[in-house]
Amino acid sequence: MKHSKLWKVGSDRRYGCSLTILFSGIVLAGLVGCNSQNQSAEEAAKLDSAAHCVAKGMPSRSAAVRQAASVTASGENGTDDMVLIPGGSFQMGSDEFPDSRPLHTVKVNGFWMDKHEVTNAEFARFVEATKYVTVAERPLNPKDYPGVPADKLVPGSAVFTPPNQQVSLENPLVWWQYVAGASWKHPAGPQSDLKGRENQPVVHVCYEDAAAYAKWAGKRLPTEAEWEFAAQGGKGNRKYYWGEELKPAGKWVANIYQGNFPNQNTTEDGFAGIAPVQTFPANPYGLYDMDGNVWEWCQDLYRPDYYRNSPKENPKGPADSYDPDEPGAVKYVQRGGSFLCSDQYCIRYKAGSRGKGEVSSGSDNLGFRCVRDQK
User: Fold this and answer.
1) Where is this region: Disordered (predicted)?
2) Across the beta sheet with 111-114, what order do the strands follow?
């Protein structure tokens, strides 16, 4: 069968970080990246104009928006397992990344933020209460993919699958696979489940899934400014959110990748994949995993030029989305990096850097946390 391209990706193979995920004879497109093979971290940062460190395992489906809108709030308004983040001013952005420039002063009001990423156990309570079905669990509409047999359009999501040998970082298809049946409750594929993973961050959730959960919980997703203010922990703009050294006192303080990416993870930090929440030290505000573990959705639409003219107080993102790599895609900001980030491959775990994802994209290194307005 002739392959049909389901999602148009950027043509810049080296730094656009495009990924095409092949499964069951069809093409599912995704974006991963920040590849910097044979480059220093500084060179990678300069050349990295459109980093994508999360695989996009699902094409866009408007049903996600419809179901998210139908979720009703649970009526809960408590702040258990949340931290009050005081309002204030800070320097937002990073000079290392083109879409994080310029460094600029921003003021945010105080807000409550989840201590940790939403866990599988917490998301399960939401699904039980609402019967919500995530995007990764829904069939693809054959009308959206003319020429592709309906039996090939199966629910699933993108799963990191490391090869057995060193490979070129030019081809992310080698380590990302579209796995039929992968979803939040089957994070590694249909043969996996949540036993022993209850306290890990929920993954394979797209923006609409995260927004639906937040609405049900009486919360919302954080703005990008709120997220960065919280991640800095009141310590100002530094190389890493935890400080200037990668390993303070010789210890790993975040769940990122060690070793040769993607085939030799030395697991120096104790984890080859996702770590349970609250495993690594909290920041000065008492927040866990603001760096590494899983990427986190923010409520802001993504534009690489937004910082040039963004509001000085409580910015909420641009009115529209634009990514020069995919001009027609609606994308939202993602923050924090994941367990797959390192200076060898994905450098967007550094402070002030930004990620981005198409509204219905999901993978096994992408989750979220919520906030609530201070009243």
Assistant:
1) 309-328
2) 82-85, 111-114, 371-373
